[in-house]
Amino acid sequence: VLMNVISWNCRGANSRGFSVLIKDISREYESSLIFLIETHADASATDRVIDRLGFDKSFVVNARGHSGGLWCLWKASCWNVEIISSGVQYVHMKLDGNCKQSGP
Q1: Which residues make Cβ contacts (< 8 Å) with residue 104, sequence separation at least 6?
Q2: Dist. CA 92–CA 94, nearest whole Å
Q3: Which of 37, 39, 44, 83 is the most buried (most CB within 10 A)?
Q4: Nearest to 13 by CA among 71, 55, 87
Q5: Rounded distance, CA 1 to CA 37, Å?
């Protein structure tokens, strides 16, 4: 089973059009897990932005000031995710893909 994962140093998750762009990228590449780096989103806006992205699970390391921010977003129907540890510059996780193959 092929599962696409996207990791992107994106910056500016609060900007206009960000949610639409992430949804389009996810749909185009049929990705069920996206890791966004340097989101620069305010902690107060993070939940609001993530809610619009179409993933039902997430883990966030909030930005500090004008630097950092790590978001891991996934679809629970495709991934079992165990967060082992995290810091301002990393997320250590165990991933178990469980998507069912579609088609022949």
Answers
A1: none
A2: 7
A3: 39
A4: 71
A5: 26
Residues in CB range of 53: below 8 A, 6 or more apart: 19, 22, 23, 26, 34, 73
Burial label for 37, CB within 10 Å (0-12, 13-18, 19+), is middle
Cα angle, residue 7 at apex, residues 43 and 88 outer, rounded to 5°: 40
d(CA 55, CA 58): 7
CA distance 32 to 17: 20
Interval 54-84: pLDDT, tens: 899 999 999 887 777 899 999 999 999 999 9
